Amino acid sequence: MTDEDKFPKVVSSPHYHIWTDALHARALAHQAQNKWDRGTYVRWAITTSWTVLEMACEEALQTNGIGRRFRENLDRAVAQLGLVRIDWGSGTWQKIAELLRIRRELVHINPSQAALFMETNTAETAIMTIRDAIKDIYARAGKIGPPWVEDDYDRGWDKEQGSGAHLTAIHAGADPDSPDVIKIGYVYKDREFISSVCPPDTDPESKLTDLIQSVRVPISRVRAYRGQTLIVDRELPMRGVVA
Question: Pairing state of beta strands 191-198 and 182-188?
């Protein structure tokens, strides 16, 4: 799968939404043409990905308020559940402790010049470390980690897309003029396109699912019609949609 095949993406939860923000910030840091912009995007990537870590820890451990005193509250939540304690002196959690120091300087203290102009590799390290910590905390709690944490791509600045080709597939046994025919469509840049015309006995939900999984442009809605009657109209929280 190429990078372009991974985008756009359907964002299915607030955790994933904020995670894509962090990935976007990292991508912009790579694309920045000067140290001022790069520093801004690196700081954004660090503080945003840290927010995701706090959210994930609270969900995995079924608690809240971890962020106020992160280490102490996380240790307490782990102990209350009788889980294996966190070793802050080595491995992933030692890196998290250092990242916490950096984050505190950015958020709570007047940051140094070095913190203001961090290089892009700091954002890379932050996201990799936080990904590992999220996986660890879910595994420590005996839970399956969220699939969105494996997402590691964002294309950064949007480049204007050409009009492209919006084709309509007419399936065998489908009469486009029939009052019972099933039509599957989507909305792209405020224009509706019909992607497929199917026989009357077609399950529209399965066709909509196929469309969402295969689309390669940032669409904002999917729709299904029976003849001229709209039977499904669903908004998509898809990253990459131009508002």
Answer: antiparallel
Phi, psi of 151 (to 5 degrees): -65, 125
Among residues 243, 199, 200, 196, which one has the least CA distance to residue 215?
A: 196
In 89-145, which ranges are continuous DSSP H helix? 91-108, 113-116, 120-140
Q: Are strands 9-10 and 221-226 parallel, antiparallel or unpaired?
A: unpaired
pLDDT (tens digit per residue) in 32-59: 988 889 999 999 999 999 999 999 999 9
In whole angstroms, give the CA distance from residue 64 to residue 62: 7
Task: Locate all alpha helices (DSSP H) within 32-111, ordered by sequence.
Answer: 35-61, 70-80, 91-108
For the question of whether the overall pTM of this predicted structure is more than 0.90, the answer is no
Q: Which two tokens stand for residue 105?
A: 């300087």
Distance from C-alpha of 104 to C-alpha of 205, rounded to nearest angstrom: 47
Q: Which two tokens stand for residue 31?
A: 């694309």
Instruction: Answer yes or no: are the C-beta atoms of 237 and 7 closer than 8 Å.
Output: no
